[in-house]
Amino acid sequence: MQRFYDPELVETDVSTIENQRLINPDISPTKVSQRSWGTYNIAALWIGMSVCIPTYMLASGLIAGGMNWWQAMLTIALGNIIVLIPMILNAHAGTKYGIPFPVLSRASFGTKGSNVPALLRAIVACGWFGIQTWIGGQAFNSLIILILPGWAVFSFGPAIGFLIFWGLNVYFIVKGIDSIKWLEAFGAPFLLLVGLGLLIWAYVNADGFGPILSQPSTFTSAGEFWKFFIPSLTGMVGFWATLSLNIPDFTRFAKSQKSQMLGQAFGLPPSMIVFSFIGIAVTSATVIIYGEAIWDPVALLSKFNNPAVVVISLLSLMIATLTTNIAANVVSPANDFANLSPKHINFVKGGLITAFMGIVMMPWKLLSDYSSYIFGWLIGYSSFLGPIAGILICDYFILRKRILASKDLYDPAGIYKYKNGFNIKAVSALLAGVIIALIGLVIPEVGFLYDYAWFVGFAVSFLVYWIIMKNSVRNSS
C-alpha cells in the first residue's frame, strides 16, 4: 500500500553541494520517506523522557521549598503548558525540512555562527547527562550497600558508583543508539512502576491521601509565596528549555505537522503532571512519616527495610535513568558537537565529549539541595536558552515566514554564510537577552529580571533580532 506523504514536507538533496564540510550522515536532512513518526511515536518519546527521576525531584523540590500539593501541581502544569508553545514552534522546521537543531540555527546565526547556540545548548545537555549519571550512580552505590553493608563507611562509595554508572553509559554510546533500543521499550514503564509503588507506600504509611494532601504550605504570607513561585515557574520552563530548542532533532522524523503538534501536546504536559504528582504526594508523605521532606527518591528507597523491594526498585531506577540519559542527553549534544566539524565528529565522538563534560560539570553540586537544583541550575541556564529560542522563532516565523533555502543551510557558499559564516546581528541579539536577564543576578533591585530569566531573555532577544534584521533577511525557496 502506498503511503500518504504530507505535501508540506520538503526534501533536500545535498549530494550536489561541492563543498561537503558542513555535512555528515548524522545531521543531513531526512528524506520524506524517513519521516514516519506519527502522533503516538512523538507522544511515547515525551512520556519516556518525562518519566524520570529529575521530574520527580523537580516536584518534590517544590514541596521541600514550602509549597503545598496544589501549589506545586499548578506551578508544574503552568510551566509545561508555557514551554509547549516554543516546543511546537521550533519543531515545525524540523518536520518540514527534516533538519536538526544545529542546522536550523544556521539560518539565523550563520553556517559557523550556529556553533554558538549549539554549544550553549550542548553544555547544558552535558550538565543534564552528569545529573542523570549521578542519580544512577547513587542508586548503584545504594545497591552495593544493601549487598555489602560495610561499603556504607567507604567515603569514596558515591564517587565509585557514579564512575561505574558513567562507564555503563559510555558503553552504550560507543555501541551506538541502536544498542539500547531493547532497554528503551520498558525503561520508562519500570520507573513508572517504582513511582506507583512509592505512591502506594505513601498512601498506606501516611494513612491515606487525606493527611498527605492536607499538608499546609509553609509560607506565612502572599509575598513569601510569590517570591518562591516566580523563580520556580521559570525553573519549570527551564526544565525543558533545552528540548524546546533541539526538538527538531526528533521531529525531523515526524510524518506531519499535525503528528508533531498533537504528539507533543498529548505526551508532554500530561505525563509531567502525572509523574510530578507522585513526587509531590510521596514527598508530602515523608514529612508525615519521617518528620522531614525527603526529596531524593534514592535516599528514600534506602530507608526501606525490605531488601527485595529495594533491589528491584533501585535496578528499575538505574535502567530507566540509563535509557532516559541516552535519549535525552546524548543524541542532541552529539549532533551539536558534530556541527563544529561534521567531517571529523560523528555521533560516537560527540557522545564521548558529552560524557566527559558531564564529569566536569560536577553534578553532585547541582543536586546538593533543591535550591541549587531549581534556582541555580534550572534558572541559570534558562537565561542563555530563552534568548536563543526568541531568535529562532523570530527568524523562522516572523522574518522568513517558514520558508528556508534548505540546501543553502549545508552550503558554505550559500546565503546563510553571512560574513565569514557568522551573523553578528544574531550574536548581538543573543548577548542582549543574556545580559539583561543576568543583570538581575548581580543587582538585587532588579532581581525580577533573573527570576524571569527565560521570559526576559526570550523577549529581549526576539525584539532586538527583529529590529536589526527585519530589512536584512533574504530567502529563496
Helical run tally: 21
Poorly predicted segments: none
Helicity range: 55-70%
Question: What is the percentage of strand-forming residues?
Answer: under 5%
Shape: globular
Number of domains: 1
Mean of all residue-level pLDDT scores: 87
CATH topology: Hydantoin permease
SS-based class: mainly alpha
| CATH homologous superfamily classification | Hydantoin permease
End-to-end separation in angstroms reads 31 Å
- Any idea of the CATH class? Mainly Alpha
Order of helices and strands: HHHHHHHHHHHHHHHHHHHHH
The profile of the biggest β sheet is: none
Radius of gyration equals: 22 Å
The CATH architecture can be named as: Orthogonal Bundle
Number of strands: 0
Word description of this protein:
This protein is mainly alpha-helical and 477 residues long. The chain has a single domain, classed as Hydantoin permease. Helices cover 69% and strands 0% of the residues. It has helices spanning 39-50, 53-64, 69-97, 101-109, 115-147, 157-175, 181-205, 209-213, 222-239, 241-246, 248-251, 257-290, 297-301, 307-329, 331-338, 347-360, 363-366, 370-399, 424-442, 448-451, 453-469. Helix 5 packs antiparallel against helix 14, helix 7 (181-205) crosses helix 14 and helix 19 packs antiparallel against helix 21 (453-469). 54% of the residues are buried.
